[in-house]
Design a protein that fits this description.
- There is one protein chain.
- This protein is α+β, with helices and mostly antiparallel strands and about 290 residues long.
- The chain has two domains: about 190 residues, 3-Layer(aba) Sandwich (Glutaredoxin), CATH 3.40.30.10; about 80 residues, Nuclear Transport Factor 2, Chain: A.
- The strands form two sheets. Strands 5-4-3-1-2-7-6-8-9-10 form a ten-stranded mixed β-sheet. Strands 11-12-13-14 form a four-stranded antiparallel β-sheet, with helices on one face.
- Helix 6 packs across helix 7.
- The chain is globular, with a radius of gyration of 19 Å.
- The termini are far apart.
Length: about 290
């Protein structure tokens, strides 16, 4: 008997043609904490505590550990903490001794001038949390190295971002734009587009401030209208009723575009993680009208 090597979850998702759009977990605010220690499978919960991680999720706050590179944890005696609002594109930074200096509940709603100094330089996050999923280590690290050639000061490694089967994942902050299946050779191009106030709808998984149906509607409408400006579309409304949704987006001319969507299970069931033993049929929102 000849045993074939298992297919990595990201390769399997590609083979099955799993859509990228609408796959970002909705979180409006992000809290980043610098951390150079080795990351485990649940690095954020290990660092902040399981209760704090659960509280953050309930409040729509995404917490990430980030670093420029691995190093001596002793170097983390003082760390940078960055708060990001992806809806208003605001960022603030402060120095802390560790997770205990950060109030998760307050970070979910506090004014930015109370958190720290205003920050304007964009941040590029790439998931490299290999202990969570091998695809992020293999594809994520390759993307990080490629980005470092031209965007070293903006590029950070990150813990689990969600959707390792879409590795390599690239997040552009402060707007919360998440790209999937980014090969190393495409990283600099996507970063350059973002710095110029533009995006590539073809590789966009979604923006984290918006619910999944709105993420799909954005990619659809951008394709129809040929819009690539980051702020070309505004979310007017997203109404979800069971397996149906109506999303209304407004373009640069303020004209509103209602889009009808339906959710379905993707077949066949597949492994959505290299660490997962159970098969899953992921949910996907698709446009039905107009």
């Amino acid at each position: 008997m000849t045993l074939s090597a298992p297919v990595r979850c990201s390769a399997l998702a590609e083979q099955l043609g799993e859509p990228l759009a609408g796959t970002v977990d909705q979180r409006r605010r992000w809290l980043l904490l610098e951390d150079r220690s080795p990351w485990g499978t649940d690095a954020v919960a290990d660092s902040f505590g399981a209760d704090a991680a659960a509280t953050a999720k309930g409040l729509g706050l995404r917490m990430q550990l980030v670093r420029r590179h691995e190093g001596d944890p002793a170097d983390d005696s003082m760390r940078r903490a960055i708060l990001v609002d992806t809806e208003t594109a605001a960022m603030a930074v402060r120095t802390v001794r560790g997770p205990g200096d950060l109030d998760v509940e307050a970070a979910a709603s506090m004014p930015f001038d109370e958190f720290g100094a205003h920050r304007t330089d964009p941040i590029l996050l790439v998931c490299t949390n290999g202990r969570r999923d091998a695809c992020c280590a293999l594809r994520g690290r390759a993307l990080t190295l490629a980005l470092a050639d031209e965007h070293a000061e903006r590029t950070w490694e990150s813990t689990h971002l969600g959707g390792h089967r879409f590795a390599a994942n690239l997040v552009c902050l402060p707007h919360g734009l998440v790209y999937g299946r980014v090969p190393p050779e495409a990283g600099a191009r996507l970063a350059d587009l973002y710095l110029a106030g533009q995006l590539d709808p073809g590789q966009l998984r979604g923006r984290s401030a918006w619910p999944a149906p709105a993420q799909v509607a954005e990619v659809e409408l951008r394709g129809r209208l040929g819009l690539i400006g980051v702020d070309d579309l505004r979310l007017v409304a997203a109404i979800v009723d069971g397996d149906r949704a109506t999303v209304t987006l407004a373009g640069p001319d303020a004209v509103e575009h209602p889009i009808e969507l339906r959710v379905e299970r993707l077949e066949p069931p597949r492994a959505t993680s290299c660490r997962g033993d159970e098969l899953e049929a992921p949910l996907h929102w698709s446009v039905v009208a107009p």
